[in-house]
Amino acid sequence: MSSAASGHNVPVVDVSPLIHDSSSSSSSFSPTLRPCCDALLHALEEFGFVYVTGVPSVIAASDALIAPSQHLLTKQSRPYKEQISMKIRPREWRGWFGVGDELTNGVADLKEGLYFGVEHDASCEQIKKGLPMHGQNKLPPEHDYPNMRKALATYFTEAEALGAAILRGVAIALGLDETHFTPLFEPTPFSLLRVFHYPAELQEEQAAGSRWGVAEHTDYGMLTLLHQDDVGGLEVKHRATGTWIDAPPIKDTLVVNVGDALQVATGGRCISTPHRVRNVSGTSRISMPFFYDPSFEARLPPPPPHAASSIIGFDGSIYAKLHAASEDGSITWRDYITAKTSKVFPHLAVERDTTDV
Ligand SMILES: O=C(O)CCC(=O)C(=O)O
Ligand SMILES: [Fe+2]
């Protein structure tokens, strides 16, 4: 059912008050700040999704990265893209993957894409320690795509600042200290960026309803910030009615959604909502999700006992098993993300000891 037919639409919230008002005392908040925080929380409680506006610098940074990525994905040959394949140094979890390589819910998605992470220099501590999912981003030759590495760094900076601002707003609306979620991101967020291409030629299989661009899933982390082009195809499950509603493109907005870790961190107030993508438009679709996630070694709180099964998200089984196996009841972000990523690219399992969770 479309959103128009169900009467439910993911709300649009202007978050510019949160970006421009950084005062740390509630008595000096601008008059527009609290309504903005309340609207954000309300959307994340009902839908787990919100469109944010008032973020021109993030949109500009995202446009600067999406243009070369789109060219690379839609215009270059397979051998060209294979030069930067994820299969090269697979534990680093970066580079290009082809249609059918990534599984959601055990089924191959009808999309290809690029994975990027925080840039790690070969001499940094994390690389020396051999941590999984750390490394250098794989980019096409600079003479073909000048400035792409710079555009990537700029987008990480902009998107992380927006993620932090939104979480400050959620904390204020929940009546918590505005820095409540900050420790989870220290010393640095473990952000990931993906650029997806849903080719037009694969639409017939999706129209039949048995295959998906991305099958139903929830996101793992705290917040996802999604730039989608103007094609559409994202669907969100509305908790109250159980219906699937469209989240169509809206100009100058980003779609923001709650992941499993934020659902846990808010005691189930914000919901990590199942969503999926189907491109039956007849044209290629490009999207760019940015995952604003905790630091790699951050400790995630155990779910409150009274509500354990209802707040641990769509893939609560992994979360619950990891908690049960941990000595003090807390798990690290590393535990959760490596267990999850081992399922989506089984042949690239980054920490083999966690694949049987
Ligand atoms: O491509 C999209 O619109 C959404 C992708 C998504 O849900 C994800 O990568 O987690
Ligand atoms: Fe997602």
Automatic annotation (TrEMBL):
<keyword id="KW-0408">Iron</keyword>
<dbReference type="InterPro" id="IPR005123">
    <property type="entry name" value="Oxoglu/Fe-dep_dioxygenase_dom"/>
</dbReference>
<dbReference type="InterPro" id="IPR044861">
    <property type="entry name" value="IPNS-like_FE2OG_OXY"/>
</dbReference>
<dbReference type="GO" id="GO:0046872">
    <property type="term" value="F:metal ion binding"/>
</dbReference>
<comment type="similarity">
    <text>Belongs to the iron/ascorbate-dependent oxidoreductase family.</text>
</comment>
<dbReference type="Pfam" id="PF03171">
    <property type="entry name" value="2OG-FeII_Oxy"/>
</dbReference>
<keyword id="KW-0560">Oxidoreductase</keyword>
<dbReference type="InterPro" id="IPR050231">
    <property type="entry name" value="Iron_ascorbate_oxido_reductase"/>
</dbReference>
<dbReference type="Pfam" id="PF14226">
    <property type="entry name" value="DIOX_N"/>
</dbReference>
<dbReference type="InterPro" id="IPR027443">
    <property type="entry name" value="IPNS-like_sf"/>
</dbReference>
<keyword id="KW-0479">Metal-binding</keyword>
<dbReference type="InterPro" id="IPR026992">
    <property type="entry name" value="DIOX_N"/>
</dbReference>
<dbReference type="GO" id="GO:0016491">
    <property type="term" value="F:oxidoreductase activity"/>
</dbReference>
<feature type="domain" description="Fe2OG dioxygenase">
    <location>
        <begin position="188"/>
        <end position="294"/>
    </location>
</feature>
<protein>
    <recommendedName>
        <fullName>Fe2OG dioxygenase domain-containing protein</fullName>
    </recommendedName>
</protein>
